[in-house]
Design a protein that fits this description.
Order of helices and strands: EEEHEHHEHEHHEEEHEHEHEHH
Number of strands: 12
Number of domains: 1
CATH topology: TIM Barrel
Structural class: alpha/beta
Strand order of the largest sheet: 1-4-5-6-7-10-11-12
Radius of gyration: 17 Å
């Protein structure tokens, strides 16, 4: 299982939100590029970048920072946040981003989205499926987690699989930024219901034991933001975990 550090950008600064709430922002003093370089030195091969301005406003204030990261690091970059058109997709792929994470556009404008992706680019697309658990059913949220798609996680995975997409970032919103542990049962269900798909888990990772638990159930990758930023997972633990990837 890959461990992928997450960097959330708001107006060019590194932040973390609690459960996606822009009213509950933690700012970090580290500059984004310095943080990327630190993760690279620790042995990571990938980085997960969320453009929160894009997520909230549909317009990025972080383009210069992201392009600087692309130019000055050797990490594979997966980028999400505010990608709302085929033109946005093409522009970011042309800058050298390795993978694009797309949620609202893919879900709300399914036909336009699927038709805008050339067959050879489908492997570069990760579908973001952010869920709230309602009556034990995972309902996918959109537009910065503020609007309900009124569709279940399982229906959407099946829908995207049918048109050739099979990479998913699944976030339990109630866990995000909380350091209370990931939703293991949710990821077990993902793997059971769509064994042919590749899943990245996101939300709640609090320590190295959480990562070993995710690895044990067979999930392909996990994103960690706050736990790494706040040293809940030590450099030694990271090194040992990465050696076993």
């Amino acid at each position: 299982m890959k461990l992928i550090p997450a960097i959330d950008l708001l107006d060019g600064r590194c932040v973390r939100l609690l459960k996606g709430d822009f009213g509950k922002v933690t700012f970090y003093d580290t500059k984004p590029l310095d943080l990327v370089k630190n993760y690279e030195a620790m042995g990571f091969k990938n980085i997960h970048i969320v453009d929160l301005d894009g997520t909230r406003d549909g317009k990025s204030n972080n383009g210069d920072v992201i392009e600087q990261i692309i130019e000055k690091s050797h990490l594979k970059i997966q980028l999400g946040g505010g990608i709302r058109s085929g033109q946005d997709i093409r522009q970011w792929l042309d800058t050298g981003v390795n993978y694009l994470i797309i949620g609202s556009f893919a879900i709300d404008s399914f036909d336009d989205f699927s038709q805008s992706i050339e067959e050879h680019d489908k492997s570069k697309i990760i579908i973001a499926l952010d869920v709230m658990i309602e009556s034990k059913k995972p309902i996918v949220m959109t537009h910065g987690w503020k609007e309900s798609s009124n569709q279940s996680l399982w229906n959407l995975i099946e829908k995207f699989n049918k048109v050739g997409f099979d990479h998913y970032l699944v976030t339990d919103i109630s866990k995000d930024g909380t350091l209370i542990g990931p939703n293991i049962d949710l990821y077990k269900q993902c793997l059971e219901k769509s064994s042919e798909s590749s899943f990245i888990g996101s939300g709640g990772v609090s320590n190295i034991q959480d990562l070993y638990q995710l690895r044990e159930i067979g999930i392909q990758a996990s994103v960690s933001g706050k736990a790494l930023l706040e040293n809940k997972i030590s450099k030694k633990e990271v090194f040992e975990f990465l050696q076993e990837e």
